[in-house]
Amino acid sequence: MRLLFVNMKIAFVGKGGSGKTTLSSLFIRHLAAAGAAVVAIDADINQHLGAALGLDDAQAAALPAMGERLSLIKDYLRGSNPRISSAATMIKTTPPGEGSRLVGVREPNPVYDACARPVELDGGAVRLMVTGPFTDADLGVACYHSKTGAVELFLNHLVDTRDEYVVVDMTAGSDSFASGLFTRFDITFLVAEPTRKGVSVYRQYKEYASDFGVVLKVVGNKVQGQDDIDFLRAEVGEDLLLTVGQSDWVRSMEKGRPPRFELLEDANRRALRLLRVAADATYELRDWERYTRQMVHFHLRNAEAWGNERTGADLAAQVDPAFVLGEGVAAPV
């Protein structure tokens, strides 16, 4: 029987140490093993996704940082859009319009050439992209949101089609609210430990995201018994999708010696299948007009707050009122 995939953008969030990177890497492996096309993005300044996908330290350190190639990304995505006078006037929230170049999951393009690297996994391969770490050179002169801005700009111009998934390991905590990045996904999996600190990020996320139609599901991690499950259910209610406990497979992976993925424990394999079912179920909720409207909303906010002053341009003029991003939109070559 042929498995049916849909096209999804999926975020994993949670406080530092919650296990969001581990769970996002397992989900990426699960999708790749099932034959889906996957772009994996590490949008956390503390870069661990490459290692979780099996890269050694040297390979992970050699991954090209999107934040360091922002000029190239801007120049390519701008295309022939007449509303954008130059790549220098593009900011992280700049929306696409007529003439902009859009990107797909499977296609070759200069952004992937510069910023993505293939990672071979059991039964398949994925494209891995990383925002890049916060370095000593950034101290006192840069905000790490300028680095994650490369991811937001990329997602603003991404049109994914069937059999494709984009999985993003987000920055820890609620820092993604500094921009519109948290609205770029079909579903967000919030990884929470069964502790007061573990659910505090959930409350922040739930409160802020409620006005933007964000689909949020909680994955309880490091659960040791029924008492932990009861605690999470009492704190997050129906948003609790599933819980996972300790894993010998994960412990081996974290030591750099992962067994074959097919040997992952049955309970964790069932959990990954449930994550995919939950993600796929949101496909019918896709609203490209709302998606585009939210892009414009955050762009105008950023333009007024700092963008116009920094670029010396009226960034509101970049908005193409007739343009709606969607699967039927053709990208210029």
TrEMBL record:
<protein>
    <submittedName>
        <fullName>ATP-binding protein</fullName>
    </submittedName>
</protein>
<feature type="domain" description="CobQ/CobB/MinD/ParA nucleotide binding">
    <location>
        <begin position="14"/>
        <end position="231"/>
    </location>
</feature>
<keyword id="KW-0547">Nucleotide-binding</keyword>
<dbReference type="GO" id="GO:0016887">
    <property type="term" value="F:ATP hydrolysis activity"/>
</dbReference>
<dbReference type="Pfam" id="PF01656">
    <property type="entry name" value="CbiA"/>
</dbReference>
<dbReference type="GO" id="GO:0009898">
    <property type="term" value="C:cytoplasmic side of plasma membrane"/>
</dbReference>
<dbReference type="GO" id="GO:0005829">
    <property type="term" value="C:cytosol"/>
</dbReference>
<dbReference type="InterPro" id="IPR050625">
    <property type="entry name" value="ParA/MinD_ATPase"/>
</dbReference>
<dbReference type="InterPro" id="IPR002586">
    <property type="entry name" value="CobQ/CobB/MinD/ParA_Nub-bd_dom"/>
</dbReference>
<keyword id="KW-0067">ATP-binding</keyword>
<dbReference type="InterPro" id="IPR027417">
    <property type="entry name" value="P-loop_NTPase"/>
</dbReference>
<dbReference type="GO" id="GO:0005524">
    <property type="term" value="F:ATP binding"/>
</dbReference>
<dbReference type="GO" id="GO:0051782">
    <property type="term" value="P:negative regulation of cell division"/>
</dbReference>
